[in-house]
Amino acid sequence: MTIQIGDRLPEGTLSEFIETETAGCSLGPNTFQVADLVKGKKIVIFGLPGAFTPTCSAQHVPGYVQHFDELKAKGVDEIWCVSVNDAFVMGAWGRDQKATGIVRMMADGNATFTKALGLDADFSKYGMGTRSQRYSMLVEDGVVKQLNVEQGGFEVSSAEYMLKQLG
């Protein structure tokens, strides 16, 4: 069952590579409860098949980095990129994309959260196993307000499309 507009995000955890040690967050991979992170916040979440892959690296992440200020001006508290990769890879990709401090690069290493969303996809024919479909969603206080799942290609999950939805 795929998550729908009006649904609450499922329980789950995501990992993030923390670049700077702070109180409560050690340097390196840290695991967070999704429910705790979304509480009281307006968050744009976008999912994609994999770090360092062509469309993801050339268009998807750069669009959200480029439009960060505009999204923040529309009341968005955080932007997350979720991918079925480990936190080390997501951290390295975030640095490569100059996304550090702009887009939270959230790792779903075993695809557990992605499967709970019903947005997993079988990329075995490409040697990549279970991955995420390409999507974007607007979440307010844990509830999905917008959901855009690509049907092949790259359009409705872009930062530009999300900006249009935010008005």
UniProtKB/TrEMBL annotation:
A molecular function annotated in GO for this UniProt entry is: thioredoxin peroxidase activity
What Gene3D superfamilies does UniProt report for this protein, alphabetically? Answer: Glutaredoxin (3.40.30.10)
Q: Which CDD domains match?
A: PRX5_like
Q: Supply the InterPro entries for this chain.
A: PRX5-like, Redoxin, Thioredoxin-like_sf, Thioredoxin_domain
Q: Write the Enzyme Commission number(s) for this entry.
A: 1.11.1.27
Annotated ranges, domain Thioredoxin: 3-167
Q: Name one GO biological process term.
A: cell redox homeostasis
RNA-binding: is it a keyword of this entry?
no
Positions of transmembrane segments? none
Q: Which cellular component, as a GO term, is one annotated location?
A: cytoplasm
**Active site location:** C56 (cysteine sulfenic acid (-soh) intermediate)
Q: Which UniProt keywords apply?
A: Antioxidant, Oxidoreductase, Peroxidase, Redox-active center
UniProt cross-references to PROSITE patterns, sorted A to Z: THIOREDOXIN_2 (PS51352)
Task: Give the reaction(s) catalysed.
Answer: a hydroperoxide + 2 glutathione = an alcohol + glutathione disulfide + H2O
Known Pfam families for this protein? Answer: Redoxin
Q: Which family does it belong to?
A: Belongs to the peroxiredoxin family. Prx5 subfamily.
Query: What is the stated purpose of this protein?
Result: Thiol-specific peroxidase that catalyzes the reduction of hydrogen peroxide and organic hydroperoxides to water and alcohols, respectively. Plays a role in cell protection against oxidative stress by detoxifying peroxides.
What is the name of this protein?
A: Glutathione-dependent peroxiredoxin
Give the source species: Massilia horti
